[in-house]
Specification:
- It is a single chain.
- With 214 residues, the chain is α+β, with helices and mostly antiparallel strands.
- The protein is 45% helix and 14% strand.
- The chain contains eight helices and five strands; from the N terminus they run H-E-E-E-H-H-H-H-H-E-E-H-H.
- It has a three-stranded antiparallel beta sheet with strand order 3-5-4, covered by helices on one side. Strands 1-2 form a two-stranded antiparallel ribbon.
- Helix 3 packs across helix 5.
């Protein structure tokens, strides 16, 4: 009888220990079998398209606000400049926002003294370019395009305008005509030269009170 009791006790002990020893394994296996939810990728809704002429167009639509920025980015900058042309990219950035021939064409066509104005060299060139420039009535909304600005860096130069979504076409046309029909007026170059020299003097460690234009 005692032998049977001890045998039953030993069997019960083995069953008890085995059951608890296998319990964690069952828990681990259940956790491993549970599917893990896949993490969603965060995507920015950029639209990229390269036109036939090689121009890369990037659009980031955001209908939550009625503000639009139209920007032109050029792969240019100081890395393209030899020592004798140092600063040329920055100079062109400033000249980009000067009146182009589309703006001059509008001014020439609406001038009160047409005889004197239309015979000026700037008007003659602007009128000759009219078939290529086309209709310039879009400039009636030019004051709706605000905050023109740009920056010049080592490997890129950008030019941009801010406006509301109703005038995005006006901003695009202004940039287009600034690229295709720059006037590069000598007086504008001279003003930039004077301004650049004045900045250099202001930033000089030993500024003087007299300055002579080069």
């Amino acid at each position: 009888m005692k032998k049977f009791f001890f045998t039953l006790l030993a069997a019960s002990s083995l069953f008890y220990n085995g059951a608890f020893a296998q319990a964690p394994k069952a828990s681990v296996n259940a956790a491993a079998a549970k599917p893990v939810a896949a993490r969603q990728d965060f995507q920015v809704p950029f639209v990229n398209k390269t036109l036939a002429n090689g121009l890369e167009v990037i659009v980031l639509p955001d209908p939550s606000v009625p503000i639009v920025t139209v920007e032109l980015v050029v792969r240019n900058g100081s890395f393209t400049e030899s020592p004798e042309f140092h600063g040329l990219s920055h100079l062109y950035e400033h000249m980009f926002f000067k009146p182009n021939f589309a703006i001059r064409l509008r001014a020439c066509e609406s001038a009160s003294n047409r005889i004197t104005t239309l015979t000026s060299p700037q008007c003659s060139t602007a009128l000759a370019l009219k078939p290529r420039i086309g209709d310039v009535s879009y400039l009636n909304d030019a004051d709706r395009v605000i905050m023109p600005n740009g920056s010049t860096r080592e490997e890129m130069v950008n030019y941009f305008y801010n406006t509301t979504n109703a005038y995005v076409g006006t901003a695009m046309r202004i940039i287009n005509d600034s690229v295709r029909f720059p006037s590069f007026d000598e007086s504008d170059f001279e003003n930039e030269n004077v301004l650049s020299s004045a900045r250099s003097i202001a930033m000089s460690p030993t500024p003087t009170n007299t300055w002579t234009s080069p």
